[in-house]
Specification:
alpha/beta, nine-stranded mixed β-sheet, 2 domains, globular, TIM Barrel, Lyase, Ornithine Decarboxylase, Chain A, domain 1, binds ligand LLP
């Protein structure tokens, strides 16, 4: 199934015309397909069906309450990184016993909140954090379930900003220190070792770096077992890539082929933390052309969305496919840009696209992950509306901001 498709020169999301969505909710708007989210989740779930597993949807990719509720309804847990994400996960109805909490900088107040919510476990990233968790847990009379996040020092071959599992980056604990730190956990009265975790990077198109890293993590797990430390969970993180341009990402089946036998050996439940794979291709940014202009060098198509709505092109030079909502045959090479006051505000450079005129609608695809969740109010722009499509129906799942939202909290 393709959630966004042309029929009779008209672009649809599931059974709803994108032009009707623009008419009803205005632009810019994020549009999501519920069926695509379900399909992506099922694909992953089925691939790992042979072993006990838990899919914790990574809320940083998309933390809209309605999207999270869909994930919860499919049986997902959540991968969170802040007190705010815990708050949202609980509102989504995600079972706390399916929530895992990563982040190199968890605050004592956030740790206390998570302890009192009885989450499944903390993914611990340093000795100092481990000691703080032990201390906070002691104060509130609870025992903290933890996993150590291992930094396996493996290059996942992706953009450096989203590479994590190498020792030049801030994440996790080096393999060489892990055994010692697990043994230290045994000495701490208020923490309990329940699992082991890794996450080496995002948008990985080949699975072998994940497998190589998981092999190290599984070796550690087996060594710990021999040392009398019996873990229950092996967490391989997220990272599965999707197709934005011409990538051919290896999917969940290929990953499962390698990971299932490895993890089976440990007797542990497998945990995964996918974000992009679940929602990336299930969402798109619908925007309208305001003006076109030409200078001696180029033609520019100026749209009503901007880098504050979708920062991935500006931040990572990321490619997002762009479609015209009405299928047009005539092509021309243009830059697609937003109204923000910097040259980094672009969606495409020198791209051969359908010929756009002022007033035309455009769809920026594969924006369901790290799209709205990374949006901001830069230039005092109002954050976009979010719309969820299911079959022939669509509904607003986040209202467009108004000017009053811009001053909320500032008029003291
Ligand atoms: N688990 C942990 C600990 C993570 O740090 C991340 C993402 C995930 C899971 C989910 O990874 P995914 O399955 O989505 O690859 N803003 C960037 C991506 C940042 C990813 C950060 N960590 C982008 O727009 O490409």
């Amino acid at each position: 199934m393709e959630a966004f498709y042309y029929d009779n020169q008209t672009l649809y999301c599931e059974g709803v015309k994108l032009a009707d969505i623009a008419g009803q909710f205005d632009t810019p708007a994020y549009v999501y397909s519920q069926a695509q989210i379900a399909q992506n989740f099922d694909m992953l779930d089925r691939a790992f069906g042979d072993i006990p597993h838990l899919i914790c949807f990574s809320l940083k990719a998309n933390s809209n309450l309605s999207i999270g509720r869909i994930a919860a309804g499919l049986g997902a847990g959540a991968d969170i990184v802040s007190g705010g994400e815990l708050f949202k996960a609980l509102k989504m109805g995600i079972d706390p016993q399916r929530i895992v909490y990563a982040s190199v900088g968890k605050l004592p107040a956030e740790i206390e909140y998570a302890l009192k919510a009885h989450i499944l476990m903390f993914n611990v990233e340093s000795r100092a954090e481990l000691e703080t968790i032990n201390h906070v847990a002691g104060n509130v009379g609870l025992r903290a379930p933890i996993a150590l996040r291992i930094n396996p020092n493996i290059d996942p071959k992706t953009h450096p900003y989203i590479t994590t599992g190498m020792t030049k980056y801030k994440f996790g604990i080096p393999v060489e220190e892990a055994l010692q730190l697990y043994s230290y956990v045994q000495d701490l009265p208020n923490v309990e070792a329940k699992g082991i975790q890794m996450h080496i990077g995002s948008q990985l198109v080949a699975v072998h770096p994940i497998v190589e890293a998981a092999t190290k993590v599984v070796e550690l797990t087996l060594q710990l077992k021999r040392d009398g430390i019996d873990l229950q969970y092996v967490n391989i993180g997220g990272g599965l890539g999707i197709r934005y341009e011409d990538e051919n990402p290896e999917g969940p089946e290929t990953l499962a082929e390698h990971i299932v036998p490895l993890v089976r050996e440990t007797g542990c439940t497998l945990v995964m933390e996918p974000g992009r794979f679940i929602v990336g291709n299930a969402g798109a940014l619908l925007t309208r052309v305001i003006y076109t202009k030409r200078n001696p060098a180029k033609k520019f198509v100026i749209v009503d969305a901007a880098m504050n709505d979708l920062i991935r092109p500006s931040l990572y030079d990321a490619y997002h496919p762009i479609l015209s909502v009405a299928e047009v045959n005539e092509l021309e090479k243009v830059d697609v840009v937003g109204p923000i006051c910097e040259s980094g505000d672009f969606f495409a450079h020198d791209r051969e696209l359908a010929k756009f005129e002022a007033g035309d609608l455009m769809l920026i695809q594969c924006a369901g992950a790290y799209g709205f969740s990374m949006s901001s109010n830069y230039n005092s722009r109002l954050r976009a509306a979010e719309v969820l499509v299911s079959g022939d129906a669509c509904r607003l799942v986040r209202r467009r901001e108004g000017y009053e939202d811009l001053v909320r909290g500032e008029e003291l």
